[in-house]
Amino acid sequence: MTRAARQKVPTRPAARRVTARKQKIAVSAPAAPARPTEAERRVALAASLDGIRQRLWGSNGTVVGRVGPVTISCGSIARGRPHWHLLTEGLAPRGYELSLRVQKEKDEFGAPPWAIALLTTLITRATEGQLSADTNQVMVLAQGVAPGTDSDLFGVVFTPDPEATAVITDHESLPLLLAVPVTRDETRAVREWSPTGLVEVLGKVDPLLISLLDRASLLSSPRARMLIDQRMEKEGSSLSTMTASTSQVSKTGELVTWKLSADGVGTFCSLLKGRIGHQRPFSVVSGASRVEVVNGDPSLADFKKRQLTLRLTLVAARQLRSLLRSTPGNYTFEQLPNFAITVV
User: Fold this and answer.
1) How does DSSP classify residue 144?
2) How many beta carbons lie within 10 A of that of residue 56, not counting itself?
3) Is residue 122 over pLDDT 50?
4) Is 0.85 topped by the overall pTM?
5) Is omega for the bond preceding 298 within 30 degrees of 0, making it cis?
6) What is the dihedral of CA 44, 49, 54, 59, to 10 degrees?
7) 3-state class of 173 per DSSP?
8) In whole angstroms, what is the distance from residue 172 CA to residue 93 CA?
9) DSSP string computed for 52-82
10) What pLDDT is recorded for position 97?
11) What is the pLDDT of residues 27-60, one digit of tens each?
């Protein structure tokens, strides 16, 4: 073929190939699925909870309480160890739902009033932001789990419900947290150690974690106490945050004063041992107020931009633990000369 003939060869096929490549690149991705409306989410969550109730109770149960938009339903479980199982519906905006398992007494026709009252209190605390979906938390109740009784249950820890760990729909999955009441000395151990650790030990005694008002403390068993003490000493506390109903800081001249509610003193002292004693910081939270407690030398109370950072040596932490009490009053410390705690 001559040079002139080669020059006359059309270039159209190449142009078509380029166009084809461009067309291939221009293919659009599939449209993202539409986000469910709030009404659709509520319907799906209600259906999922209905499914849990049908599976565990064989019925939809009975509504036994209502706290604002949140309802408490109850049903009995006869297989194995008979007990009442209570469920909340309406806490989904907080990121979880709650449950409670309570021993069913002979000839009892409904859940005991103390159980409904306890779950009502927990719902109120949840709507106030004092609870979260985190299982690494303990709630101390000043009047105990069942006020007016001689029960030694004074705190509550949380763990996934053994038989229904989550509320699952097409749109989302929410943890179903089982509230587990714990005794006064178990509450103290939990603060210095770990809620999940205590639940792990308690679960070996009762896998369903059914609450009973007169349950003996795990620490009354020498074997369990030795195990808990050993793990507490080795592991320290897993709680990095505690809440208090009052936590306010002010500064007058060089003196920094921290106003702390009596309900937070016990947990604060426990975390001084379980966290600072193991070189781990923690926070005290009350509404928008936040106090950071950290290891450091020298000890000082640093109040800047309306936030308190309490830096402590191990000696200072021990002094605070030995002197601070939940009795209202003013407390000062030799290791922190420009700092005072007012317990209210």
Assistant:
1) -
2) 19
3) yes
4) no
5) yes
6) -110
7) strand
8) 12
9) HHHHHHSS--EEEEEETTEEEEEEEE-SSS-
10) 97
11) 566 666 678 898 889 999 999 999 999 999 999 9
